[in-house]
Structure formats: C-alpha cells, structure tokens
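[User] I wish I could look at a protein chain and see how it folds. I have put the entry right below:
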Amino acid sequence: MNIEQLDAKIKMLFGDIIIDKALVRSLKIRDKRTIPSFVEEWLISRFQKPDKSNAEIYQDVTAFMSKHLPAKTDKERIKHELQSGNEMVILDRFNLRIDIAKNKKLLSIPCIEETNARVSNEVIDKNPLLLEGGQWGAGRLIVRPEGNINVIEMIEFNPMQSGKVDLNTLIQARQHFTTREWIFLLLRTMGYEPTAYNESQQDNLILRLLPLVQNNVNMMELAPKGTGKSYIYSNQSRYTWLNSGGALTQAQLFKNLNTKEIGLMGRYDLLVLDEGQSISFKGADDIHAKFKDYLESGHYSIANDKITSECGLMILANIELQNNRPRRYDYIKHLPPMFHDSALIDRFHGIIAGWQIPRFTTESAALGVGIKADIFGEYLHQLRIVSYDEFPYGQCPTLKGDSRDVKAVTRLASGLSKLLLLNPDHTDYESYVLKPARDLRERVRSQLAELDPNEFSATINVNI
C-alpha cells in the first residue's frame, strides 16, 4: 500500500473535515494544558493557515488558551473579574440541567467550579447539545442581579464541537477505499499509525470502537500496561464517560435519589471503567444485581423509576502475561470478585485480546491525515441511532444457537458492519465482520467455562 497515495485520497475525499495528526502531535499543545484531543484539534484547526509556520500556530493557540482556557488556579481571578463587572469569554465543557421544581435552567462551568450559573433561552435554542450531556465551546459570561443575589449568566455561546454530520460523506467516500485502506483511515483518526502494527493488531485496535458505534454493547479489554487501552475513550467522544479510579456508588451509576439526577449509565453512550482490576463499588451487592438486570435488558429500576438507556459498559483491566499470553487461563479472575459471577459475565458480549496489541510507542502515533476527532465522535454517535434508510449498514444474517451467544455476535457484527461499511453480501464480510464478532464472544465463553465448567463450554455454536 502506498501511504502517500492513500493520504492524497483521504484529502481529496474528506476535504476540510480532516487534520494532519502528525502536526497535532508535533505542536504538543496538550503538554501545556490537559485537554481532550478533540479540543486540541479544534484549537489547531482554528488557527492553522497555509502561510503560517508551526511556531506561529503554536503561539496563536497557546495565547488563546492562556486568555480563554483557565487553569484551576485562575478560578478566583475569573470570579473577581466577573464580580467587577467585566465580561469574560471562557473555553470549557459547559453542561446544562433543568430544575423543573424551581423553574430554573442551571449551567455548570467546571473551570470555576460553578454549578448554578444561568443561561438564556436564546442560547439554549441555538445550542441544544448543551442539554445532551454538555458541550465544549466558548461561553461569554457576565454577572447580573437576580432577586437578592448575584448570579453568573452565559449570554453567548460558540460551540467548538460539531453538531450533526453528513453520513452520506462516509458512504460516498467508502466506495473509493479497500477494506484495509478504510481500517488505515479509522486508525489514523483514532491517533494510531497503521504502519506500526501488523494486520492482526490493526484489526484488534478498531474493536475498541465497537461500544461507541453500537447501542448497549458490553465489552472488556484485558491487556498489560501501556497498550493505550483508555486513550481512545478519553479523547474521542464527548458521549463517553471514563472513570479512572475511586469507589463508585449506586447513586453515581444509576440515579441519585436525593437530587433526582440520573446516573452515568443513563446519561452517556458508553461508561468506561478503567483500572478494572482494582475498581471498587460502595454497596457492591446492590450494584451487582443492577448490573445484571441492566446488561441483559437495557433498563434498571431505582425506587419507583424504571430507567431505559442505550449506554454500553466497557471494562479495561491490566493482566499479567507469560510468552505473550495471559499467565492464567482464568484471566477473568484478575477482576474484582463481583466479576467472578458467570451470570454477570455471560451478559458481556465480547473480550478484546489486548495481549495481542503491543505497547504504545512514539512510532505508534499517527503520522498522517485522519478525520478530526470531534467530527469522528459525532459520526460514531449518529451511527448508534441512524435509520437504515439513511445509513444502509449494520446488517447481520439471521443466526441460530444459544440465545446469548446469538445476541452478542449479532450486536458485535452490526457494529463492525457500520464501522467498516460492509454488509453480508460483501466478500470481506465473513473475515472482517462475522469472524471477529464470533471471536470476541468466544473469549467470553472461554472465561465462562473457567468459572462454571459444568454449565458452559468454551466454544460457541452460532450458525447462519
């Protein structure tokens, strides 16, 4: 494969929705401030011009960040400026919630730890994504009186993330790529350099996208440290919540009965539990029962409420290897005791063989162009809910066999079909879609057989 020709093809077919990932990495904007890669790419795109040197782009971006992307230590200075009657434009991830009882619209501004700011109906009407889990952008803030108190209000908002994107762009472009070339594009977009991996490793890496593109997909990736398990989830999509440690409660996961706020499982496309080998839960027995209910049915009950969600669950955990294989056959036991229950594990659709993915090195980072991260995140989100008339991919042939195996393989194959734009009538479908879906589920069955050999066999019997 000629990489230069492939880059030229990507540029021609995708135009201004791509970015040079090597340029992004070389500028090292995130060395100056910890931000998601989709924010970093948006900032670089804003200031990148054909006649600008890399040094000039860096200077413009960092100057903008210094002025509009405050550090935690700037919190009181910003509030002082606002209290003094000055307007301020802040780049942050703004989140809006509606308090019906008090008839208020309450805005969260994380950089100043403000949770009760105000926002006008006009701003909301122009930016409905503020109501859908929050949105990164530049907000113009003022302080105004409200009754006997002063409140912070956002009077203008310019979003940095894309809204709905045109899926037809993907459909039309895909016709000009082989399946392997399309995988190259996906990997570049994810931030990986495809030439640093062999084909088997490339195929494993794109499996990390499955729970982002398909509703209610529950997966695990078990691997040694340093393979970049959590990178894609923390940097690709605003619809994902990555939990990197600390004990989780039932209120955080499902619903807070005091505040009536829906938990993480009800608000995001995907909940990722990183460092799964050491994760802990407060009230583990109740959470265990609710996980079993939700992972099977897509809904859970809290008090008198029955909450339905399309959120998937991804567990990332480190395991020990020997000769590039898991040191123990029952590698599921690297996870906490909650996950040693075969009834719970049976509700997971697939396990990614992270031990087949090498450690992430400087040579692993993308060296060419790919789709901008914020736009790609929107593509993935839309593919979860799009109709077949608008996006005619996601098909899987009718399968027969154990009901949970069939459900898992069907759901995983549907996600791969959307990612690769391959339906069952394509010659590549069996090797790139159906076989990987079966392999993912078969690893779950191998662990079920280790946990409960009297009930489960290590292989699946799923047929067309």
The mean pLDDT is 91. The radius of gyration is 23 Å.
